[in-house]
Amino acid sequence: MRKIAVIGLTTLEYIAIKSISDNSSHSYIERVNTGDMQNGSVEHFDKFVVSADIFANYTDFFLPRKGKTIILCEGTAITSGNIISVGRNGDLIDVISTFEKFFKESGEQEETSELTSREIEVLKELANGHTIKEIADKLCISANTASSHRKNISSKLGIRSVSGLSVYAIMHGLI
């Protein structure tokens, strides 16, 4: 039986996740608080379901466990490689399907898309809030080239929004 920690979610979200888990897997779900994370008493959990702000505040803890963590965030889901998230505003069937898959998987996933070193540079700049023109100036490339890199990054990662790319960069320790 898998032990799953739920951190930083509302009671209603916790109940919904528990219900999905009960229907799709043999898992024990427990609600824990950030104090438990700080004193190390969450090490025995196999997987984690966390809010985006908890993930952002405890990236040192979650980055090594990103294949075992699902993030509940505002807006749309971002799933790329080892990063799994569910958007609160997403389609209910997609949300349930993502959680069911997450509960059934072993937690180890492989990175599916590789970025070039230049794409990583552009991604870092995007995540830091720079415009395409600012990125082009800083990296000594044309705005068209910077824009092409941005399109390639989005295509490889399947993430279209700058905020989504920023979350990706944080989760992979790029910024």
If you had to describe this structure to a student in words, what would you say it looks like?
By secondary structure, this protein is of the alpha/beta class. The chain contains 9 helices and 5 strands; from the N terminus they run βαβαβααββααααα. It has helices at 11-24, 34-38, 52-57, 59-62, 92-104, 117-127, 132-139, 143-157, 162-171, and strands at 2-7, 27-32, 47-51, 69-73, 84-87. A 5-stranded parallel β-sheet has the order 2-1-3-4-5. It is elongated, with a radius of gyration of 17 Å.
Strand order of the largest sheet: 2-1-3-4-5
Provide the gyration radius in Å.
17 Å
SS elements, strand count? 5
Structural class per helix/strand content?
alpha/beta
Mean pLDDT: 83
Regions with pLDDT < 50 over 5+ consecutive residues? 107-112
Net shape? elongated
Query: How are helices and strands ordered from N to C?
Result: EHEHEHHEEHHHHH
By DSSP (H or I, 4+ residues per run), the number of helices equals 9
| Amino- and carboxy-terminal Cα gap | 36 Å
Major beta sheet summary: 5 strands, parallel
Provide the β-strand percentage band: 5-15%
Helix content: 40-55%
Summarize the structure.
The chain has 175 residues and is an alpha/beta fold. It is built from nine helices and five strands.
